[in-house]
Amino acid sequence: MTHEQLFVGGTAIALGVLSVTAGASNLDVFFQMTKIRWIETCGGRTLARATYAMIGVTLIGLGIAIAMGFAPNSSLTSN
Question: Looking at the chain, which terminus has fewer C-beta neighbours within 10 angstroms, N or C?
Fold first, then answer.
């Protein structure tokens, strides 16, 4: 586990928590981005909130994996 992995993992976890918070809080400020507005137009606010939550949970899981040292390409050597 290196400092870089901890930094990237911690950043991913923080952004994941922010995303889950955005989905749970239902504040209009979080739903002003173009892609989220498009999702909200197609499927409603509930789908947009669920999308925020899914992105957040994925980022938290990815952040934990990175912080714990998961590196899928660590066995590859450069030639």
Answer: C
